[in-house]
Specification:
Structural class: alpha+beta
Shape: flat
Strand order of the largest sheet: 4-3-6-1-2-5
Helix content: 40-55%
Order of helices and strands: HHHHHHHHHHEEHEEEHE
Distance between the termini: 61 Å
CATH architecture of the largest domain: Orthogonal Bundle
Length: 295
């Protein structure tokens, strides 16, 4: 069937974006895409030398989508922020927008940034990278960083954030609780910003991360704590085996505590005598623990 409806090149790229959204670069077969727009493969070769040329053209569009997601984060910055604070918030939005896109649009992200071994995606600077450059330049323009601090800062920023995005989409973080990954993403971005030399007063204070996890378990006794509750699956939820400060309830009664690691097992929630008295339970009795925030 011949194509009679307009710009075939654009139609093939749009079909490629639709296919890549769920299937990544592997979904971009020339035969499948030409069938989707109703033409023969030979017609596509008038616009693309080969499949690789088509894949790279679709990748350029995917990079624009990454940049749009980053712009959305930037647009949410408070208009009342000082120029210096807005510049720091802009860099933070660039990093978090990049990670969020990677996690929510894995096919497009893979296409945009994991096909570059095939050749340059574009002769111009990729829009997401340009946003990073502009954000870093903004830190110098507002006096947050010196020109010397700014020099070469793109590479620690991009390599750190891209590395985290890769871990969150293809590595061990992909199976963890999304709320825990959100918290770790914010920590990664804030850490790299701090490492550039941004003054402490401009850094975003860490807000509690909301949780909604419920466990039912008995109150246990061990030499390390007078009494404690073992929380199965806690390290997957929290993304760490280290101590974690949390808030929540035990049988509906509020508490603030530090979850303690138990080696390679789940965390232990220490239960002091005053809380046991409030709850009305002792060792061996079942309780329901609900974690509501990570502090």
């Amino acid at each position: 069937m011949s194509y009679h409806h307009g710009d075939l090149r654009t139609a093939l790229i749009e079909a490629g974006l639709r296919a890549a959204r769920s299937g990544g670069a592997a979904a971009l077969g020339m035969r499948e895409l030409t069938r989707a727009v109703g033409v023969t493969p030979n017609a596509a070769y008038r616009h693309f030398a080969d499949r690789n040329a088509l894949v790279l053209a679709v990748a350029v569009e995917a990079q624009d989508l990454v940049a749009h997601a980053m712009h959305d984060r930037i647009a949410a910055i408070s208009p009342d922020a000082s120029p210096a604070q807005a510049a720091v918030d802009r860099l933070r939005a660039v990093g978090l927008g990049y990670i969020h896109f990677a996690r929510t649009e894995r096919g497009w992200f893979e296409l945009a940034f994991l096909t570059q071994e095939a050749g340059p995606v574009a002769t111009t600077v990729p829009p997401p990278y340009q946003l990073l450059v502009d954000a870093l330049d903004g830190l110098v323009a507002t006096g947050v960083l010196t020109a010397r601090q700014r020099e070469g800062a793109e590479w620690p920023c991009w390599s750190t954030v891209h590395g985290f995005a890769d871990l969150a989409t293809r590595g061990p973080l992909q199976h963890q609780d999304p709320r825990a990954v959100d918290a770790q993403a914010a920590r990664v971005v804030d850490t790299v910003i701090r490492g550039l030399g941004v003054p402490t007063e401009l850094l975003t204070p860490e807000a509690p991360t909301m949780l909604d996890a419920t466990f039912t378990a008995p109150i246990s006794v061990d030499g390390a704590f007078p009494t404690y509750i073992e929380l199965p699956g806690s390290h997957e939820l929290l993304g760490t085996r280290k101590p974690v400060k949390v808030s929540g309830t035990i049988d509906g009664h509020p508490f603030d505590a530090t979850l303690m690691p138990s080696g390679q097992g789940p965390h232990w929630l220490p239960v002091r005598a005053a809380l046991r008295k409030t709850v009305g339970k002792e060792a061996g009795e079942q309780v329901t623990v609900r974690l509501t925030a990570r502090r």
